[in-house]
Amino acid sequence: MSKMREGSTNLPARATRRSRAALLALFVFAGTPLARGTTLARMTLGQLASAAQVIARVRCTGTTTRREYGSIWTFTDFAVEESFKGAPGAQITIRLPGGRDGHIEETVEGAPRFAAGDKAIIFLERTSAGDWSISAWAEGTFRIARDSQTGEQTITQESSAMATFDPATRTFRSDGIARMPLAEFRARLDAAMRDGGR
Hints:
Helices cover 21% and strands 41% of the residues. By secondary structure, it is an alpha+beta fold. A hairpin with a 2-residue loop joins strand 2 and strand 3. Helix 2 packs across helix 3.
């Protein structure tokens, strides 16, 4: 799941970095506290809402990367435009694995990336380091866009094009919320939070 790209280096260094990437993927999918939101199983909107400590509509204001625990992490800053659950304050920073450090890039499948100006509704959980991460990564990320024809705001779940495991049918399938009117999504979210995770 984790991939790395780098500039010209000798073979032992390349092998070492591949080993680090493999270890990163291992602890990500083993469910360590720093990656506790990670899952391969499909989650309903109710389950996401129940797991999240904060649900907020946000706008990305920038990103930084740094090395911790032998791997690269991306820290994304958001301005909070609206809170649906919890009290995140006016600004919030989230941690996700991967990113670029000089000529080295680590990527982790399912970990979303943001650019300044991106708008989304995100579901957040505390990490063991005390900062924030997105619940189930791509599953807990809902991108906001504007329909070019109608001008209506729509929302698309980051995982809608990814294959996730459905425990009910015991199969992998690609589905999720795609290009749903934002008003409809908000109504569904309100219902999901009332239903308590069903």
